[in-house]
Amino acid sequence: MKLNHINLYSHDTEADRVMFEQYFGLRTLVVRGIKMAIMQDNDGLVLIVNHFDNKLEDFDYPRQFDILHIGFIQKSREDVDALYERLSADGWEMQAPRNAHGAWSFYFKAKGGYFIEVTTLTPVRPEEAYQGTP
Asked: How much is the pTM?
């Protein structure tokens, strides 16, 4: 089984579309005004950002969307630092990269209201590895 798409609610679909292209190499497949952008990465994953307020009316989900985040794994600490420098130079506000959960990472808030994590691979400690049903 392969994860093939992610759909995120966004307060600003166009700003997010541009950010994903500029910093993460996604390419835009479809834009539907300010309501939706559909993008894809080189491995075939489709990322959709949408601003469908009408779908929230009967949907029981926390109104605090800031808890949502997606992550982009980088090959090295230097790659994390380089992307941090690019984003910082372009005016994005964020905390400096730091050690977090065993990885080198930073978070920043997308214009759409959710967070993006840029990180090295998080090591799994042997005692944390899933061993089947407890």
From this structure: 0.72
